Each structure stands twice: as structure tokens, then as C-alpha cells.
Amino acid sequence: MAAILLGFFFLFSIIILAFYLAFFAFARDKSKNPGEVNLPVSVIVCAKNEAENLKNFLPPILDQDYSNFEVIIINDASLDNTLQVIEHFQTLDGRVKLVNVQNNEAFWANKKYALTLGIKKAQNPYLIFTDADCAPQSPNWIKHMASGFKQEKSIVLGYGGYFKDSKSLLNKLIRFETLLTAIQYFSYAKLGNPYMGVGRNLAYTSKQFYEQKGFANHLHLRSGDDDLFVNEAANFKNTFICHHPEASTRSVPKTDLKSWFHQKRRHASVAGFYKTKDKVLLGLFYASRFFFWILLAVLLIVQFQWQLVLGCAGVVLIVQAIVYAKSAQKLQETDVVWLFPFLEVFLIFTQFGIFIANSISKPRHWK
């Protein structure tokens, strides 16, 4: 029996190594400066009860070193004074445009409906999306994201990280999960199979949106305005990855485990609607890591060929560490790397809990 478990342990180790060797596609990719870009851009921000965040994070968008852009702010039936904050910014800057969404019985609490109205309001053909609690990390954010369109691409995938709190272990877990997700979607896109993007930092053309019939194929789902759209529309010819440090955004992370768990449940609830090949790859990636750690623990407890087991585990962890270190350096998340074995184990079993919870019931609202 122990010999069979050892065989499966080696199998899952090989699968993990195959994935992380593929992830070198992103780890070794080099960032490029955008050069001169002046394409007409509409930045679109969907806000639901985000008055304070808009006060803090809208100014860095308006302060972008880019001459040809407007900012569409969508007030998605907010209950706080989000509308008044947007109207105030309108009086200060003519580039701010308002879309005021009232609750609609057919599309109640549906972010995709609100975003569609915002896209229809946009006057420019190049659209960059971010969230109300996101801040660009440089005045060249728009320039870098818009540069992807110069490559004759219609979809640009950016990095949306989270603000750092050096005293919080949960903060490191959130940023590690975000780093791992970015490694995956950047690597897959680099290898010719883009499968998702994040709405905190995503761009596509209005032409691509309308050719795809917007969110029509998944409008009934509360989430997925970003990853399901990319999964449906992106391919190796039309997608550009933008991971330059000046092209990133950072968001306000959750500060308690319960809120973050609920957020991840909402994000994970749409993964079942990905293309079959993407579901298979993502499922295999998760399952191999899950069983790797389970079998590692069992084999060490029974002390069966423990030297061989530890040697194999050491090779896997070293390859993972190299990929994480190189990728984290690109995305400025280096402080989470040294904790990666602990964070990975915690994340794997948290994801298992999310899978169980979503099997029982689905999250109902985007906010």
C-alpha cells in the first residue's frame, strides 16, 4: 500500500513540476517601456457604495500622465453618498462622466448590467477597467495599458495587486494568492492560451466587447464580468500581457478571514463556466498540489522511503521557489515568497473549503 502511495506521490510531483516549468514563460518574460502612446482611452470604474474609496483613488487616475482619456464612473445603485462624490468630481474635472444606474428588477445587483451601461457611455474605442478601491501605482498606468493596443491586440491583461500590511499574515495570504493567480493567467496567455483576467486592471476595445455581444452569454451570473469575458473572447492572437511595475494597480484588501473567504467564494463561483480545457488544467493544478501535500504527510508519518520522499519534495519546492521569486520580483510581491510553503498549504485547504461551500450554495450578489 505504501509503495502505491509513493507512486502517486511521484506522479503528482511530476505534474506540479510540469506546471511550474511552464510558468517560467512568465517568470523570464521581460517588461517593455511603452514609448509614445496617445490612443483615445476611456477608463471605466464601477462603484457601489464606494464614496470614501472614490475620494482617495479617483485623483491618481485623473493625475495620469496621459493626454487623451476620459473617466466613466458608474454609480451602481449606491446607498451611501457615492453619487454626490462623483458629481463633485464632475465639477472639478470635465473628463469625469457619470452613469447613474437605478435598481432594475431584471438586473438587480448585476454588475455586468451596470458595466454595459458604462461601456455604452464611453466615447473612446479603447477601454481600461479598474475598481473603485484601486489605485494606479504610477502616473504612467494608462500609457502602459494602452500600449498593448499598439501591438494590434484587442485585450490587455494587467496586474491588480493589493496594498501591503507588513504586520498582517492574512494580508500576505491574500497577496500570495493574487501572485499565484497572476503567474497562472500571465503564463497561460504567454503560452498562447489566455483564460482569465482581473477587473481591477483589464483593458479591451469596445469593438471586441460588441463582437462578443458583451456579457450576454453569462449575464445571468453575478460574477465573471472580467474572467468569463476574457475566457470567452481572448485567444493567442488578440491578447497582450502588461506586467510592467508602472502598469499595476493596488486595491484595499479584506482585513478579516470571513470577508476574504466570501470574496473568494464569489470569484470561484464562475470557474465552472470556463472552457473545458481550462477547467481541466486548473483542476489538475489544484488536485496535484492538494494530493502532493497529503501524500507527503502520510509517507513521512509512516516513514516509507522517507529520504527519497524528502528529496523529491525538495526538488518540487526549489522549482516553485524559483518561479515565485522571479515572478514576485516582477510584480513587487517579494515579501511573501519566503513564506510560500506555509501560505501554499493554507491556501490549498482554504480553496477546498470554498469548493465545499460553493457546492452547497452560490454567492448571490457582486457586493
TrEMBL record:
GO terms for molecular function: glycosyltransferase activity. The keyword Transferase applies. Residues 42-176 form the Glycosyltransferase 2-like domain. It holds the Pfam family Glycos_transf_2. The keyword Transmembrane applies. Gene3D superfamilies: Spore Coat Polysaccharide Biosynthesis Protein SpsA, Chain A. It comes from the Bacteria. Keywords: Glycosyltransferase, Membrane, Transferase, Transmembrane, Transmembrane helix. The chain crosses the membrane at residues 6-26, 280-302, 308-325, 337-357. Belongs to the glycosyltransferase 2 family. This is Glycosyltransferase 2-like domain-containing protein. The lineage of its organism: Bacteria, Pseudomonadati, Bacteroidota, Flavobacteriia, Flavobacteriales.
